[in-house]
Amino acid sequence: MAGFWGKRKREQEERAVQDASLARQAETSLVAADERIRTATDELSFAEAELGVSLTKDLKTALDAVRTHLREAFQLHQLNHDEIPDTDEELRTRNARIVQLCEWAEDLLDEKTASLAESVARVRQAPQVIAKVRTDAEALSAQLPQTRAAIERLAARYADSAMHQISASADEAEQLISFAVHGADVSERRRAARQNEEANLALETATEAIRRVGALLDAVEDFEIEALRAESTLAEVVADSRGDIIAARTAPKVPAVTSATTELEKALEALTPSGVRGDPFAELNQLRTANSALDDAIMKAEYRAQHPLPSVAQVQHSLDDADRQLGVARGLISGHRGWIGADARTRLAEAERLRIDIPELIAAEATREQALTGARRVAQLAAEALQLAQRDIDSARPQQQGWGGDGWGGGRRGSGGGDIMGGIMGGLVIGSILDGIFD
User: Fold this and answer.
1) H runs (alpha helix) in 125-163
2) How many angstroms from the chain centroid is the CA of residue 423?
3) CB contact at 8 A, 200 and 120
4) Extents of the domains making up the chain
């Protein structure tokens, strides 16, 4: 007994130490959260002066939310020190809530001030960013003559339908460079006028314009490489297509193969002759489409040659056989409802559900195989239902051995024909009685 009280005393002492630690943590968290609100308020004031109100509204909203929720923490702290005595559980709950609110407040303010610090850093680096925009603009302007020459060279080789991707790239790049330089000038003027929000917007648009110029000039260089790759691939596809046309002559003669072969031949004839400006991208797409169509037609024709399409009569014959098996299974199960288990009834229900959809699939050639497969599946399910139902009936029907006693005219009294018949009739009577009970 002394051991029990000693253990309980140790537990109480440990709990008291934990409660005291939690109370100190709550007070420390309140002080830290209050200080964090003060520093965040100062950061908001500086950020509004540098960024403007619209870019700092997230931090302002977070500060309002933190102040609102920390009022609850201060009220709980006041309740812990008023004249009304509190239980240990009440103090523990309040202190835990205070710690939770303070941690949430500091995490929220840290997140918002961190994202704002990035914007402030960009603003403070605005002079360097503006200088870089102007330097990049000069470098990109120096590349424009080379880009124009490349476009002219490519235009002499490729058709307008292919060149529309880059034909106006040099002019667009020149306009964007002018826009970026103008944006940098506007940013400087707005910053000098203490209109920091407008200055930041102008600087961001100038930076984005320079990025788009670089993408336009790179697209011209990439186009030349991609066009050469398309021409090389086109030559390979042409050779492959001609081989497919030769192979199609030995494929089964069906309308789909003939039509696909004709379309591929037309696509080959429509290719741009040598020495004439062409569009390798469009020609490659058209030829690939026609080539793939011929491959699919040949594959389907060969499959059909190996697996002939069943006739309507064949499918109907399989369906009639399935209906006969369904009728037998349905009659047996409905006549012995109390004897049949869930497996047999499930097989029968699945077969009947599948049977409903088969007539709609017979007429169309595309779904006739599916109809034949479905009819065979119905027959299989009906056979399984019949087998399971027969098993259930055999296991549930009482055995006749030992039921032919004296009272039922059973066959124990001798080996005469009357005794044997009496035993059989007794068994049949019992079976009929049980059939009536289960039905």
Assistant:
1) 126-155, 160-163
2) 71
3) no
4) 2-124, 126-225, 230-306, 312-396, 404-439
